[in-house]
UniProtKB/TrEMBL annotation:
Name of the protein in its database record: Stress protein
Originating organism: Bacillus cereus
Domain of life of the native organism: Bacteria
Length: 100
């Protein structure tokens, strides 16, 4: 991701993934229970090459503290149970979480 400015959105991140030749298919809204009170926007994406129903989530959070808590949540899930492991990457107020 390039330096994040106010015009970067979750949708634009998905567009950039596709422009780079990456799979980010069937973007769909996430349920409110997935950090709905702390995020600005979020989408689930599918990556067909990883298998059926595999992919991840892209979040834009309202602030860095909420992002840190969400990243810790996903990182801790994987530490507690290898079946729940996922890859996470954070930059500015954006979090990418991909199935592991």
């Amino acid at each position: 991701m390039k330096s994040v400015t106010s015009n970067v959105t979750v949708g634009k991140v998905i567009e950039e993934f596709k422009a780079a030749g990456l799979e980010a298919e069937q973007p769909s809204d996430l349920p409110e229970k997935e950090f709905g009170n702390t995020r600005k926007d979020a989408k689930r994406i599918l990556v067909p090459a990883l298998g059926e129903d595999s992919g991840g989530r892209i979040f834009e959070f309202k602030n860095k503290e909420d992002l840190k808590q969400a990243k810790k949540y996903y990182d801790d899930l994987g530490n507690g149970n290898q079946m729940l492991f996922s890859h996470t990457y954070a930059k500015d107020n954006f979090l990418l979480q991909m199935n592991g």
